[in-house]
Amino acid sequence: MKLSSKLIVSCQAENGNPFNDLSSVVKFAMSAKLGGAGGIRSEGILRSSRIIKATGLPVIGLVKNYFEDKSVAITTKRSDFINLLNIGCNIIAIDGTCRLREGLSGPEFISMVKSEYKCLIMADVSNIEEAISCANSGADYISSTLNGYTPWSYKDNNCKPNYSLIKEMVKFIKKPIVAEGRISTPGHAKKMIEMGCSFVVVGSFITRPHIITEAFVKEIK
């Protein structure tokens, strides 16, 4: 099943979020479908499975955990990858950074699963070097998801989309580029597509009402 439009909605909820339960996250995904989303990005085995059944949309599945330095990691365990594959995720997101997981770097992990399983992989990266390496290792989609969330890219987490990184990815990589991270307006999303991205992922400013509320409060003040 292919992504049916250029907008992918990330339907996730963290601890402390009032919507952090199975029913609410599935309803977010169903609402995204009603609005015209072409796919859903979902964290966790059970939640992803329910979203697949409830929406019928392509689902980009992942399992989020953390490296020893507390920085976020995306599907770094072989067992998590297999579980996502078994529930029918159309695409599986994998951490494409150089950090080791089960003895392999992100590109090496992607190369391994591509050689052993029939699946589509979205490599989540934080800079252009990782993007190129993952593309060369067989990833089907390259996403800027982790820009601003690795120790060497924290400086980029400044509330603005990283257009310069996207420009480099589009220029140097001949695979579908996915823009994700700090895309908070329809204008941001439109610009990413105009720059050459195949897809845009939006999460917080669609599915996290408290963040949307904070933005309004800050602007009014």
Structure description:
The chain has a single domain (7-220), classed as TIM Barrel (Alpha-Beta Barrel). Helices cover 40% and strands 18% of the residues. The chain is built from nine helices and ten strands. The strands form two sheets. Strands 1-2-3-6-7-8-9-10 form an eight-stranded parallel beta barrel, surrounded by seven helices. The chain has a two-stranded antiparallel ribbon with strand order 4-5. Helix 4 links the parallel strand 6 (91-95) and strand 7 (120-124). It is globular.
Helix content: 25-40%
Number of DSSP-assigned strands: 10
Q: What is the name of the CATH architecture?
A: Alpha-Beta Barrel
Strand order of the largest sheet: 1-2-3-6-7-8-9-10
Order of helices and strands: EHEHEEEHEHEHEHEHEHH
Give short descriptive properties of this protein.
221 residues, alpha/beta, TIM Barrel, 8-stranded parallel β-barrel, two-stranded antiparallel ribbon, 9 helices
Short précis:
By secondary structure, the protein is α/β, with parallel strands linked by helices. The chain contains nine helices and ten strands.
Outline the fold blueprint.
Layout: E1 7-10, H1 22-34, E2 39-43, H2 45-55, E3 59-62, E4 64-66, E5 72-74, H3 78-86, E6 91-95, H4 106-116, E7 120-124, H5 128-136, E8 141-143, H6 163-172, E9 177-180, H7 186-194, E10 199-202, H8 204-207, H9 209-220
Parallel strand pairs: 1-2, 1-10, 2-3, 3-6, 6-7, 7-8, 8-9, 9-10
Antiparallel strand pairs: 4-5
